[in-house]
Amino acid sequence: MEEQSDLCGRYIKIFVVVACYWIVSIATVFVNKSLLSGQEVALDAPLFITWFQCIVSFTICFSLSRTGGIPGIFKFPKGTPWNLDIMWKVIPLSIMFTLMIATNNLCLKYVGVSFYYIGRSLTTVFNVIFSWILLRQRTSFRCMMCCAFIVFGFYIGVDQEELLGSFSLIGTIYGVVGSLMLSLYSIFTKSVLPSVNQEIWLLSYYNNAYSIILFLPLMVLNGELSVLWNYENYHSTYFWIQMLIGGICGFAIGYVTSLQIKVTSPLTHNISGTAKACAQTVIATQWYNEVKNSTWWSSNIIVLASTALYARFKQVEMEENSRKIVSDDKKSLV
């Protein structure tokens, strides 16, 4: 009876964490869309908005580092981003992180929320390409077929967006670049984590600290200084509440993502993220009263199903490889 109670409690915990991930992730996308292209804020400075979100995340991480975390919930690791030795090791990854979140928000500015997932769906394909180029890791035929279907679904989605008159070339380009940077960031994170004692929270803390500096020249190059100088709504309480909510959401998504992986598994996280993207697309079409044809919906289904299958195939391959290693160890002992 006690075991059943513990199991029930564990399932409830997993359900709550996954639900929090869905709510925070979907809310973050809609809040960012409102900030980036909504008429209420009306600030044509997407990099400034992203920069402000980094400031909010950094401030939260800095406060947690001072207090040691939240008692009874989690412990924040000790560390400072201003150590020169660590700085030189982490900054190359921070450049990728900065470009990744910048292009993601620029993509969201120009494309609809319903197309946002498709616009950034090539991350898996880039993972396979860069894993082979940089790490010399081969990919199985079935995983490559999944990637081919993802590209096919992406192509259909772009074609249908153009047919429906809602296609944005610059937004799609930003989405592809964002997928590329996310892939590189994921690959190089593994090599940088030992420099921060394998602490994801420290890496997030340092990335946000360095991004605050790295965004400054990007804002200048994007011509946002004149936009910020001429903006008239700085006195608006609504504007700053929206900005603050966007920053808190940006921090929260990092926390709930790590928490979901911790209480479930990387595979479950991928499946949950894929299902969340599906729900997000449906909600967006209803929220913005968008009418999509069956071919457009087919492109989403192809990309979502192919991504989920790819995650499952990789999981099976990793399990098979781990069993082979154990078997070889046993043979050597014999």
From TrEMBL:
Q: Which GO terms describe its cellular component?
A: membrane
The membrane topology of this protein is: Multi-pass membrane protein
Under Pfam families, the record lists:
TPT
- The entry's protein name is Sugar phosphate transporter domain-containing protein
User: Which UniProt keywords are present, listed alphabetically?
Assistant: Membrane, Transmembrane, Transmembrane helix
Where the record annotates domain Sugar phosphate transporter, the positions are 13-278
- Location in or out of the cell: Membrane
In terms of PANTHER family, this protein maps to:
SOLUTE CARRIER FAMILY 35
Regions that span the bilayer: 12-31, 43-65, 86-103, 115-134, 141-158, 164-188, 200-219, 239-257
Family matches, as SUPFAM superfamilies: Multidrug resistance efflux transporter EmrE
Q: What is its main location?
A: membrane
Q: Which domain of life is it from?
A: Eukaryota
